[in-house]
Amino acid sequence: MDAGDIRALLHAVANGETDVDTAFLMLKQQPFAELGYAKPDLHRSLRQGAAEVIYGAGKSAEQIVGIANALLEGGQKTVLVTRVDAEKARIIAEKLSFLYHEPGHIGRIGAEPEISAPGSIVVATGGTSDLPVAEEAAFTAETLGCRVVRLYDVGVSGLHRLLAHLGVIQSARVIIAIAGMEGALASVIGGLADCPVIAVPTSVGYGASFSGLSALLSMLNSCASGVSVVNIDNGFGAAYQASMIAHISQK
Amino acid sequence: MDAGDIRALLHAVANGETDVDTAFLMLKQQPFAELGYAKPDLHRSLRQGAAEVIYGAGKSAEQIVGIANALLEGGQKTVLVTRVDAEKARIIAEKLSFLYHEPGHIGRIGAEPEISAPGSIVVATGGTSDLPVAEEAAFTAETLGCRVVRLYDVGVSGLHRLLAHLGVIQSARVIIAIAGMEGALASVIGGLADCPVIAVPTSVGYGASFSGLSALLSMLNSCASGVSVVNIDNGFGAAYQASMIAHISQK
Amino acid sequence: MDAGDIRALLHAVANGETDVDTAFLMLKQQPFAELGYAKPDLHRSLRQGAAEVIYGAGKSAEQIVGIANALLEGGQKTVLVTRVDAEKARIIAEKLSFLYHEPGHIGRIGAEPEISAPGSIVVATGGTSDLPVAEEAAFTAETLGCRVVRLYDVGVSGLHRLLAHLGVIQSARVIIAIAGMEGALASVIGGLADCPVIAVPTSVGYGASFSGLSALLSMLNSCASGVSVVNIDNGFGAAYQASMIAHISQK
Amino acid sequence: MDAGDIRALLHAVANGETDVDTAFLMLKQQPFAELGYAKPDLHRSLRQGAAEVIYGAGKSAEQIVGIANALLEGGQKTVLVTRVDAEKARIIAEKLSFLYHEPGHIGRIGAEPEISAPGSIVVATGGTSDLPVAEEAAFTAETLGCRVVRLYDVGVSGLHRLLAHLGVIQSARVIIAIAGMEGALASVIGGLADCPVIAVPTSVGYGASFSGLSALLSMLNSCASGVSVVNIDNGFGAAYQASMIAHISQK
Amino acid sequence: MDAGDIRALLHAVANGETDVDTAFLMLKQQPFAELGYAKPDLHRSLRQGAAEVIYGAGKSAEQIVGIANALLEGGQKTVLVTRVDAEKARIIAEKLSFLYHEPGHIGRIGAEPEISAPGSIVVATGGTSDLPVAEEAAFTAETLGCRVVRLYDVGVSGLHRLLAHLGVIQSARVIIAIAGMEGALASVIGGLADCPVIAVPTSVGYGASFSGLSALLSMLNSCASGVSVVNIDNGFGAAYQASMIAHISQK
Amino acid sequence: MDAGDIRALLHAVANGETDVDTAFLMLKQQPFAELGYAKPDLHRSLRQGAAEVIYGAGKSAEQIVGIANALLEGGQKTVLVTRVDAEKARIIAEKLSFLYHEPGHIGRIGAEPEISAPGSIVVATGGTSDLPVAEEAAFTAETLGCRVVRLYDVGVSGLHRLLAHLGVIQSARVIIAIAGMEGALASVIGGLADCPVIAVPTSVGYGASFSGLSALLSMLNSCASGVSVVNIDNGFGAAYQASMIAHISQK
Amino acid sequence: MDAGDIRALLHAVANGETDVDTAFLMLKQQPFAELGYAKPDLHRSLRQGAAEVIYGAGKSAEQIVGIANALLEGGQKTVLVTRVDAEKARIIAEKLSFLYHEPGHIGRIGAEPEISAPGSIVVATGGTSDLPVAEEAAFTAETLGCRVVRLYDVGVSGLHRLLAHLGVIQSARVIIAIAGMEGALASVIGGLADCPVIAVPTSVGYGASFSGLSALLSMLNSCASGVSVVNIDNGFGAAYQASMIAHISQK
Amino acid sequence: MDAGDIRALLHAVANGETDVDTAFLMLKQQPFAELGYAKPDLHRSLRQGAAEVIYGAGKSAEQIVGIANALLEGGQKTVLVTRVDAEKARIIAEKLSFLYHEPGHIGRIGAEPEISAPGSIVVATGGTSDLPVAEEAAFTAETLGCRVVRLYDVGVSGLHRLLAHLGVIQSARVIIAIAGMEGALASVIGGLADCPVIAVPTSVGYGASFSGLSALLSMLNSCASGVSVVNIDNGFGAAYQASMIAHISQK
Prior knowledge:
Eight copies of one chain form a homooctamer.
Chain A: H1 3-14, H2 20-28, H3 44-48, E1 53-55, H4 61-73, E2 78-82, H5 86-95, E3 98-101, E4 106-110, E5 120-125, H6 131-143, E6 147-151, H7 159-163, H8 166-170, E7 174-179, H9 185-192, E8 197-201, H10 213-220, E9 227-229, H11 235-246
Helix pairs in contact in A: 4-5, 6-11
């Protein structure tokens, strides 16, 4: 409810179209559902340009179904559910029409999204082991209406694999650079691309990778400009922001 | 030199317009200057959509002047110089026309930039002490052709100061959220805005802020979607990416 | 045994009411039971205003029963047992009348507590996954004689869910703010409330949350005054101090 | 502006006592001053029960004077200024009536506070070097209207020094336990007292004290219930919360 | 494809021996296979003097077989596979002739390597528990054509065990020093040897060894010159570089 | 083989009592057994005053038996084996006469030790959960010939439990202070005792105890003089040094 | 005041030799001086076998003089003052007879100590830069009545320098092993000696030594038994405990 | 003194050529000088193939001169002195013929070295600010008899600058890759080169570079094989090992 809405409401009160109690209720009314264990946000698509997403980790399949139903009843067309394992996915699919994408441990309920953003988002990974994070990102971006180009296993120790796809990199609208270990991929892509690069450190590695810390620090210190970073293994978050950026010219 | 360029060059060789040695040279030729102590990149504006920037920390005023001259001679119109203290700025200004912006320890050489991106970038800070980082960001964004709205001292301990500017936040094209201490500003703005938010942790704080680590971790773990993060105190990096995003619809 | 007690005892010795050996024994006598594996404190409710609590982690069900019996025999009316899993709870319940509250992995033996503190303690959480810590806190506070208002899933990424309950926050006597990830909830509540806020970081999160470290640092650096912090996931500790504060005006 | 205020305002609009534009302005109007470099909060004493405080670190003497004037003009009677060195204090004192308390690098402008809380707050330190943090806490508590008992150099390596003051500890309303190095003071006092203990780790120490980290972790892991912790060296924060607690029975 | 190749190709285009499209293809063609989930490097032995190695962790047995087949078809004679457990090894062995060396969780496919480097590489360990890392190193070095001398359980707490083998140490071409806990072996060997020492910290230890961090820091701070370090538990990496060094005089 | 031995040997060579080859062998001969996987030290009791100990973690029962046999054959009377779980203990007991002490996951092979040190070693713990570390320490000290007094669950949050045993503390020859969480026990005992205190941090705790790091730092920063520290959970190491100290007057 | 004292006092009260008030006072009376800024312990030499020591860091020269006077008046013969720079030493020397030992930034007031412990303490260092810590240790031990043998610059990268002094090491009563960087000295000496070794990590080093952290972890993980550790740069603490051990047989 | 030497000496004793006392002395004699504050190693060039080097940090100019003189008198021809600032260099130059190389804060005393290793060592840096570390490395390698090729400012954000020198990289004998910030240079060069790469992280950077930690972790986790790492800013150490490797074929 912004300034314009408030002013309009007050005019309605002033000229008697709306009575005081109704206006008070409207000013106070909250756009969320109250499930006890959760308060799903029914108006996020209005406020943020993308609908509410369910983070599945630490929620039971029943809770996920409950929140999804509240959102669908609230008018949301497509509900994305992240961090869902195959067993939970099976239970959800018994209650709701659920498209589960196992490689990214992610799925969606409801209508098939349509491509709504121009250009494409490139999802690049350093190695084969980064694939689950990459698929979380790719599926998220597709659900949010973006075209996605996958560019996997192009780590910097074999630079020619990356350079062979220079055209893809230089024509992207946004790039999501995903890598574990030393995380150098983000800097190298950042130096080659002329679009925003969102870096995702992964927990792939061992020893002094400290579960992704090495890649995270590496990416934060990237000597290439135009690179920002999200949390370790946060493919969803990178894709969410990438989609925001990809849709920006539509405003 | 992309695939199209290579193909064109080969045709030229094939039909005798270009001789073999010239073609070889063109394939090998590097778009950077060799100063011994540095190799400034002369074609970055072609490759990355924004010209080469000089990171002033750890360089002498003389080296900065040398690199700037190489870039100007290479055809770059405006040269941004970051992390320059007042004394270095004075020496640079003796050799080159240098517009120094002391609050952000930053300056530029050459032509005044024109606004080239639609909408505006909001630069918000949690407190007064974050101002130097914010001014580095704001001046960078302006130099890169963006309109900037400054929204300082809107930290979450006095939420009404932020809510009073909800209109500014909800009409931004990109937001740069700058905060030290607990860095909660990024999450709160991330939850209110419908545009990409780039978070900049600052080293403002003491004790368990560990020189910005607390704010950095906080921002990486933001529960709001659409938030990405750059290095501690890296106002320049946030603004560089913000400018890339702001210009995106122009492509 | 305080100064008054010592003086009284000495007078009794001086006028022959108490003989030397008895007095010596009384000066030396310790108010704890000796179980070999533990030394439960029998006089804590006298010394600290709240009775001895059993920390169940790392103790066998048999040890818990043994300590509880020692306390009950020592005159304690209600014994709180924290960090007990369902299996241990089952065994304890076979030996003693044990009210187990599974959501908080906590239970109590003995008499039902009565409300002994004025006002109420608000237990607020950032998300659904913080619920076990919140229930540990809520059950502890109730066992210690406090009224509790639960306010769950009011994280700062959807600020309106929190603002909708502003009245609850502003009428609380003490607030326990529980959050993982970036832990911003404590600062935001701290800025809105006019009562002490005890912040509990939780280990909810992944990647750079480092098992609660991110939330912990965030809360310690809170820009809001009036916020203090307990250990990660320490719902019990927060509630124990909150109860002390809530009872303070009764003194 | 709470629910009651909104309802009253809407009635006034409905019956024509207030016109729409005025009401809109009142709904939007923010209780803070806009100084450009800062937005001091004019209504904090209403909202939080204690007036706005100026954190002096990273602010110039001029900025401090500016903010203080805004607060005094806004009706605040006493303004506390923390983290001020002697030189800044001298400049402030030229412009405003400033009572500077050098041991705590703290001062206040305006009216002398009156004792408004019952009982007393005990400020205890482990060693002589913790004195600056202790004096910041003591002066803050006194400015907020509390009686303070200072108990310095009672570290646990000479337990009899602490036990000699058992009476003081057991009659306190709130205790602030301040210690560097291993920070054991908080646990020992926590085990002896029957009131809330707020622990302040200090950066006193060397080597593996890691600038207060050791004491901080120690205090967070206190085996005594009823202990909460604030940031390293944050004497002000501990006293602010202690004052809130001390005033609680007056509500 | 180096400068000479490019020049030759251009001459071929210039004199009509090669047409433009073929040349373009050759310039673009990449020496890697595209398996979708991986892009194995077919020319690494040309570029780096040692063939492509398969890092088995996080890959299925089927993926390992797929990559191995691609490499064998690409002309590679021996394929080393690291970090393979016994079960995966069994599956691989059903499809390909696989020599599995269980103590090092490592194996190779294809032709038996011949000794191609002069002298020998000494693999020394501090204790018995470092054996798996040592065997990974030893088997790798042997597969790459080196002679290996094993010197196990010569940790510094019983210095005479190490000094008894001084001859072995002083006649080595390269030494791989493997140790967990305090990692002092690297410094002591570094001070006794006159050849390069590559130190491998292991995750052997407990408590303040922090999974190898203690040994890693120790080795990086070695007061002996001539010591460099690889990642924790990275026996393969140490052996790969040791083999490079051992072969150096053959160039 | 010390200076005296060398001189004697050379005299024997000089006067023909010993031939050159025998002398050379004697100079080279190593006092350890070579088992391939291990090199047990046969002369440690000569060199260090206490016989070789087998660290059982990461060794198979068969390896432990093999090493024990080598030591027994080498003349060692009693062999201590640490960090052995019940299953390994069962296998060892089938081959050798093995006294297993389950609470400390420790056992010994061979002759019963006799008390060889004057006075007694006090083993004190903060809580019940520290018992396994304490029993490792107590059994080690007993095996090395010391009298042990156990003082468990005397943590500082109930100081009277510790003060009740002041006599035990003040009459000890050495004290081993074992505690997790905040580790304050070491400082408090250090301040009360007039003998050396060896502190053992344990991994008991949760959250910000970071698996013993909190207790470790606490103990290293102890404000009490006369306290030194061993690795987290290293009951054996503390007892080994305590035994060295306890035997010192016998030299 | 121990059990015997209490019993005697009570008998005196019972038979009228002592009146109640006097007895009460004696039970309450504290053996420390109250200076306001400090509470020096007057009976430590009784309770701990060594007199009170003044830690000079963070105290003014005036405070040091004040505390020293209180101790001298309380009957202490020699007062050790640690961490005193040359300037403070000069001021102290104007007021009191102060023997300042600059290499260790340490000094003593009062009577020359006499050798009171049998045997000698060896103070060994890894390098020349560890000298200040070593001299703090050596001077402390000498002040406490021990003979000291200095063995400097015997780091493990040149093992023969250490082995050349094997006799010194094997005849020591206690060894203090001081080293920075990788701290391997403690393990090597621990393996050679048959007496307790107290390890002191120093902040000597750079980069990944992290101000002594590397040496600290190394020493805590020592594979040699019989090694314990004190805080980084804590030469005093090591010597204090070493002196306790050296005096032990005198009891 | 190896096995052959011992045997020869014993024969000499046996046949009377050498008397017992002389032999004893020879067995005991140490190849180091005793300066009190240091024990310079006179035989390192025999034992390690490179002469003793003086680490200048933390030593006075006088001490450096003293150690250098001992080494020169011991027969060493060239003495390298690292980490010397300009002022110390000036004092040393007054006493000895000292060639100071200011960019690397390094110098040498004595004879000019001759090129003794085949091929060349490439010293590459990511940026201009890494120059001091690079010059320490380059000067060290030159002093040890190696040819050095400097390749500065070839960081991965402008990959073409590195690729333009592919020939230099692919013809190197050893490469020293020096970089701060994200340290990606090591991985990229590691993937392009077929010789050993020694990576040197530098403390260049700010914020989350944590004084070189980010680059260090990055390099340890390099996905390229054949890369090992030395301490942060340790140009000397990298060059010392590089020289060992470069000289290897000469053996």
